[in-house]
């Protein structure tokens, strides 16, 4: 495990796709390396617990640029007692305003959510599931999941810390790879990202993952001013086919983003979407974070990490379906500026997340790739079930 952690640091520092660690640490699917693999999840799991405790709640004023004064449309949960009525019936569950700042062409999919609204996240332990990626992706798309975020700029077959066997690698192709939204993880990937924009431009590119937080000491933290200077290389590169997602902060409503935009000479004009990570078992708390972020930036929001898993979560997956998803999703759908949500996680994840009890599992799929009650509820909240889904 120490070797594995050491290697992980090396890989991250070098921004390398090379895989010396596999040789040294042996079989990463063996249980003896579970801790190391958990540590390699390059996600917001650790951070969410901090959000949940409210340790970093404020400093909003310092984050406010002087020019923004958007009013807060102020959703409320007045309808929450009755809004969870979809129950998989396929009936309309929302006002479903499909408007978007980014694209006027979004149309309702087979369900009542705008096309592309439902998305997911694959963490670095996804490769442990026998059903990943093929069976997993089949189930997810059946329930309306459109695209996914991995903690990678590269496709997963080039990403050693996803630990996919050769067999699984061969399944990584076509629609699955196309559905990935790449992330420039940190400054070590700037040049690769510029090359990608020139040679193989993705429709969307996320610029940094939680630069305000080091996941288990493994991911890099980046200060706002140097980040502005580093990311200018990407922001100034020709990118006619690519839209940019803002740095996704551990604490999106904290000071980092404001300091970044102050330092970057108006680069906010080149940012199409503001990212939000939020882990909170209280739907109203999630909505508060969303509306605060919109009030600050007046921009389209993608919730690029979402789940109730924190130490404060005491839901089973079925309770999560009825008291969280069925309440929260219809309320988010009333906010026309929230274009996409990414539920974490899409894979079967038995790793305790954010200190959440094991009973609070947000996994959308089982190890064999079949759907969980959570995925079924997410689809139902959008009026999608496999019998109504068109593909
Ligand atoms: C690696 O782990 C897998 C799954 O537990 C097991 O089937 C395989 O035998 C292991 N290989 C080695 C070399 O330990
Ligand atoms: C918010 O952005 C829209 C364009 O997306 C603009 O029309 C509107 O004036 C902005 N509101 C404020 C308060 O800046």
UniProtKB/TrEMBL annotation:
<feature type="compositionally biased region" description="Gly residues">
    <location>
        <begin position="84"/>
        <end position="98"/>
    </location>
</feature>
<keyword id="KW-0732">Signal</keyword>
<dbReference type="InterPro" id="IPR053183">
    <property type="entry name" value="ASL1"/>
</dbReference>
<feature type="compositionally biased region" description="Polar residues">
    <location>
        <begin position="61"/>
        <end position="79"/>
    </location>
</feature>
<dbReference type="InterPro" id="IPR017853">
    <property type="entry name" value="GH"/>
</dbReference>
<protein>
    <recommendedName>
        <fullName>Asl1-like glycosyl hydrolase catalytic domain-containing protein</fullName>
    </recommendedName>
</protein>
<feature type="region of interest" description="Disordered">
    <location>
        <begin position="61"/>
        <end position="106"/>
    </location>
</feature>
<feature type="signal peptide">
    <location>
        <begin position="1"/>
        <end position="18"/>
    </location>
</feature>
<feature type="domain" description="Asl1-like glycosyl hydrolase catalytic">
    <location>
        <begin position="162"/>
        <end position="351"/>
    </location>
</feature>
<dbReference type="Pfam" id="PF11790">
    <property type="entry name" value="Glyco_hydro_cc"/>
</dbReference>
<dbReference type="InterPro" id="IPR024655">
    <property type="entry name" value="Asl1_glyco_hydro_catalytic"/>
</dbReference>
